[in-house]
């Protein structure tokens, strides 16, 4: 989407003005379960109404606006659930909306251009989709329940065999967005087609959008979630 300005977001700013500058913030709000009818409310008002730590909201919103995460040192246990909610909703968006949209574009392209190169793209994306699903399932079924248990002072993975930690999560963590670069490269530079019309543009746009959101997703995990969980583990003397 077209971003008209690059504004560093602050609590007193009106959400509607920020969305006009960067429409990608609509997707960010959806990941937070925030109603997009924001009237003239400020960032601070929206955060208070939705019980979201203002620091988390601003850190993530500024990622969408192209700035780095400043620090997560003032976040604590109660903030874990807001971050997990955001990431889980992101997962639903990838698996339920964006990946099916891209797959449909590839299939239509294949219908019009039954050539080995498009079959290769189709195969590549199928394998990539499976890898993404495995990655997100691991987070939903193993990592997030552990993080959530820490924030609620519950025991989880008691035995040595099943013990889990933020460090193990960090070591297991992979950048699933980087492989999309190979696919974009193929479509932009190496596959000549006679009948692709607007399909190739739609496909590439969807790939750029998915890559953009996945990149922010990874930064949130690496720069906000993992430091926060390590901090909680240190407080509890575990990990």
From TrEMBL:
InterPro entries: Hemerythrin-like, RIC_family. It comes from the Bacteria. One of its GO terms (cellular component) is cytoplasm. Gene3D superfamilies: nmb1532 protein domain like. Residues 87-229 form the Hemerythrin-like domain. The keyword Acyltransferase does not apply. GO terms for molecular function: metal ion binding. Its main location: cytoplasm. It is found in: Cytoplasm. Keywords: Cytoplasm, Iron, Metal-binding. Transmembrane segments: none annotated. It holds the Pfam family Hemerythrin. This is Hemerythrin-like domain-containing protein. It comes from Maribellus comscasis.
């Amino acid at each position: 989407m077209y971003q008209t300005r690059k504004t560093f977001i602050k609590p007193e700013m009106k959400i509607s003005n920020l969305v006009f500058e960067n429409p990608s913030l609509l997707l960010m709000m959806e990941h937070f379960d925030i109603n997009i009818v924001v009237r003239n409310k400020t960032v601070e008002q929206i955060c208070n109404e939705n019980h979201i730590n203002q620091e988390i909201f601003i850190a993530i919103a500024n990622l969408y606006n192209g700035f780095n995460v400043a620090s997560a040192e003032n976040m604590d246990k109660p903030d874990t659930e807001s971050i997990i909610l955001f990431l889980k909703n992101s997962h639903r968006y990838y698996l339920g909306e964006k990946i099916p949209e891209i797959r449909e574009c590839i299939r239509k392209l294949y219908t019009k251009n039954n050539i080995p190169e498009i079959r290769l793209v189709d195969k590549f994306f199928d394998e990539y989709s499976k890898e993404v699903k495995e990655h997100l399932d691991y987070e939903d079924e193993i990592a997030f329940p552990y993080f959530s248990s820490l924030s609620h002072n519950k025991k989880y993975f008691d035995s040595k065999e099943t013990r889990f930690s933020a460090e193990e999560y960090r070591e297991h963590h992979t950048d699933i967005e980087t492989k999309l670069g190979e696919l974009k490269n193929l479509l932009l530079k190496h596959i000549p087609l006679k009948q692709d019309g607007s399909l190739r543009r739609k496909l590439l746009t969807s790939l750029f959008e998915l890559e953009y959101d996945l990149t922010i997703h990874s930064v949130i995990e690496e720069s906000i979630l993992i430091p926060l969980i390590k901090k909680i583990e240190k407080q509890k003397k575990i990990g």
